[in-house]
Every structure is written in C-alpha cells, then in structure tokens.
Amino acid sequence: MSDRFGRFEDLPEGRRRAVVDAAAEVFGGEDYARASTADIASRAGVSKSQLFFYFHNKRELYLYVLGALTRRVAEAVVDERWYEIDDFFELMRYAATRRAAFARLSPRVMGFFVRAFYPGHRDVSGALDAFMTDSVPAMVQAYLGHVRWERFREGVDPMRVVRMLVWCGDGYLHEQLRGGGRLDMEAMLSEFLVWLDWLKRATYREEYL
C-alpha cells in the first residue's frame, strides 16, 4: 500500500466509506472519462483538494475503490457457513445467491462492477484487465482451500471450470448490456444456477452427482 493510501486508511471508517460510496455511485453511473472527481468529493462531503491529498489522481482513486469494493463484496459473501461447504458447486451456488442478495441491498456497488467491465479508457483498461486475470487464482487460493477437488473426474482441471464460470458471467453481461440494456440480477442468478448444474454433470464423478 502506498503512503497516500496509508493516509486514507488512517481516516475513521465512516469518512472512508463515504468517499468509497460516493466514488462507486459516480463511477457506476458514468463512463470513466466523464466521471467527475468534483462530484465525488461533493457527494462524500470533502473538498476536491482533500480528495487529492489522499489520491494522486482519478486513476488511483478508481483502483483503490475497485479493491475496497471487492473486499466489501467478499466480506458479504464469505461467512461462517462458507467454510462448512466443501462441495465446489454447492459453494458456487451459495456465493451466487449471497451476491444477488448483496446486489439488492447495494445497487451502487454492483453498478460500479458492471461498469468496470466497460471502462473504455486507457487510464484503467490495462489495470482492470490485469485485476480480472489475477483475481481468479487469488480467489481460489483465499476462499476455496477447503474444497474437495477430488470430486472432479480424472483429467478435469478445476481451474478451467472456475474460468468457464467467469467467462459465462462475462459473456452474459456483454449480451445483456449491449446497446445500453440493463442487467437483471435475478435473471442472471437463474442462468448461473443452470450453468452450475450443467458443469457439475459434465465434470463431477458419478458418485457425487
């Protein structure tokens, strides 16, 4: 973490959350290039100069918010029950259901992530691509260490299954949002559960179906 981020992290939680929430709302409602840092500062109840005391530029703020919101979603999804589920597909079902519930309660956060798939600006597009690529193995290492991978059939690479689910979600988002459409989280959840069932039947050993 940089010194600037360290300064921001030293702020009281309420002030940090106000800035992150304001940034999520603005970045989630506008293309990156049009998102106004003055608007973010105003909504957060700080001055623009204060905002840039903690973040060198808009890109740095955006990437901080991306990490902060990723942690917030993870905290909402991963609870005590999480580590009681050792079946990969049941865990993915549990995660998808809890994410959908979180989305209903925190639409601005989910709006930010949906918009993150279409940054369209050189300042953040490369960093977002790297974040999306690195987040999958990081997620597996951090949250799936207790999964019983031996339930997969011989010759099946579980990481490929994980990536297929990510690609399915990415493709679904592109299809739904193409041409300015809106995302229906309940419909996406229903589709995701169908994908899980298909993949389980295609990749699990018979005794675990």
Nearest-angstrom radius of gyration?
Answer: 19 Å
Kindly report how far apart the N and C termini lie: 44 Å
Largest sheet: number of strands, sense, barrel closure: none
- Unreliable parts: none
Q: Could you name the CATH homologous superfamily? A: Tetracycline Repressor, domain 2
| SSE order, one letter for each helix or strand | HHHHHHHHHH
**What's the average pLDDT?**
88
Strand coverage percent: under 5%
Task: Write down how many β-strands occur, each being a DSSP E stretch of 2 or more residues.
Answer: 0
Structural class, from secondary structure content?
Answer: mainly alpha
Helix content: over 70%
Number of helices: 10
Do you know the CATH topology?
Tetracycline Repressor, domain 2
CATH architecture: Orthogonal Bundle
Count of folded domains: 1
In one word, what is the shape?
A: elongated
Tell me, what is the CATH class?
A: Mainly Alpha
